[in-house]
User: Fold Bifunctional protein FolD from Streptococcus macacae NCTC 11558.
Amino acid sequence: MTEIIDGKALAQKIQTNLADKVKQMKERYGIVPGLVVILVGDNPASQVYVRNKERSASKAGFKSETVRLSDATSEEELIAIIEKYNQDSSIHGILVQLPLPSHINDKRILLAIDPKKDVDGFHPVNTGHLWNGRPQMVPCTPAGIMEILRAYQVDLEGKHAVIIGRSNIVGKPMAQLLLDKNATVTLTHSRTKNLSEITKSADVLIVAIGQGNFVTKELVKDGAVVIDVGMNRDKNGKLIGDVKFDEVAEAASLITPVPGGVGPMTITMLLEQTYQAALRSVTK
Ligand code: NDP
Assistant:
């Protein structure tokens, strides 16, 4: 019997719990978590993400700020704004929405964020903590997937976890988080040979490549747990994942839908990490 993961319900539950924790933080320490999202340019998808982040942060009782900058903003101007928020003690999380316009070097921008406020977990200091097995700020999508696996009581110990896609945002941090839970991890990518042989042996298969319906049932072992990170539009503009859901669901024991699987957990982890950063600011 296949179970379909309800990422929306799980995200809602965690966010409701978070709103309670925020109230307690306010009573106990006199602060609320502060999150600033910086958006440069008018990429329509980014505008939607930023609005969703804003709405969820306010609903959970956070101080939420959004800085909207024009496409013409220079790298120096953006760094000066980040620096201002690095110094602002009411802000605990700084997120610069990617992608940035091509004249801005995103590596330089990510380096400008104080690692303690780097709620996206992309700063090399946080990457280092993660790979040393002492994660602090973790990229939100893999962190959300770990929450899903925990909530659905997926036992990872000694299991073969296969990830398709090796991006810094999803695949690589995912590998380390699964290793931390004693899974045996295989990280695959576009140059991997005999991909289907590898994926066929996966107890847990995580797919993050950005190609609609790429994973068919021929690639999946019976009873596998399948997590689909992909967000793609089909020819009718409908949102679809990297996994061909209907046929893979027949083989999987547990599977995420798109939408309503991994997506809602990403924002939730952004809020959770901002809350944790605020807590560290008063308890350390
Ligand atoms: P990237 O484009 O940065 O990385 C894609 C990865 O997939 C690369 O490592 C690439 O390999 C690999 N790949 C591409 N084609 C194949 C193939 N045919 N076989 C095996 N591997 C392949 O993507 P992201 O990690 O940023 O995003 C992946 C997907 O997840 C996208 O659809 C994105 O929209 C979605 N996403 C969803 C989020 C959510 O909150 N739900 C958050 C983040 C991303 P190589 O390195 O060799 O090029």
About this structure: Residues 141, 164-167, 169-171, 188-192, 195, 208-211, 229-232, 262-263, 266 surround NDP (CB under 6 Å). The chain has a mean pLDDT of 97.
